[in-house]
Design brief:
Distance between the termini: 11 Å
Number of strands: 4
Strand content: 15-25%
């Protein structure tokens, strides 16, 4: 598994921000979305492999509020969850256990809690189980099913 961060410098951030989905389309990303929680603008990608890529811009970014599940947000929530999970796995492999614990709390506050998960998971594996249950309940409630593309890509990297 690879986790790459690239600093991007541009004279016209507004134009690049608007064009970003089109600019990365030739890479056929599994996930491509702006980070809701970063202090600076960051475009997050998961590429086949899976490979996690963050394109980090210097422009300040105010964190957005926690996700609120709905028919229009469930796919974005799913992409964000699997991106976050892949990133957590890279930190686990690097032995950063304190960071993982803190991030699982943040994951609960911003994503799992709003989906109805009552407790902060203690491990990545528990976070995945909690998320899948909550996602499945929301899919039934909203009478929809989101693609499992991101999940399938990330699960490969989580296997020992």
């Amino acid at each position: 598994m690879s986790d790459w961060d690239f600093r991007v410098v541009t004279a016209d951030f507004a134009a690049v921000r608007e064009a970003m989905p089109r600019l990365v389309a030739p890479l056929s990303p599994v996930v491509a979305q702006w980070d809701r929680l970063s202090r600076t603008w960051c475009y997050m990608l998961i590429l086949t492999g899976p490979v996690k890529v963050d394109l980090i811009f210097g422009q300040p970014h105010a964190a957005l509020p926690p996700w609120q599940p709905s028919a229009s947000t469930l796919h974005g929530i799913d992409d964000h969850f699997w991106d976050w999970t892949l990133w957590l796995r890279s930190k686990q492999l690097a032995g950063k256990h304190g960071l993982i614990e803190a991030e699982l709390g943040k994951l609960h506050n911003h994503l799992l809690g709003p989906m109805g998960v009552m407790q902060t998971p203690g491990t990545i594996e528990l976070a995945i189980a909690d998320y899948r249950r909550a996602r499945n309940q929301w899919e039934r409630r909203l009478d929809m099913r989101i693609p499992r593309t991101a999940e399938e890509a990330v699960i490969q990297a989580l296997r020992p």
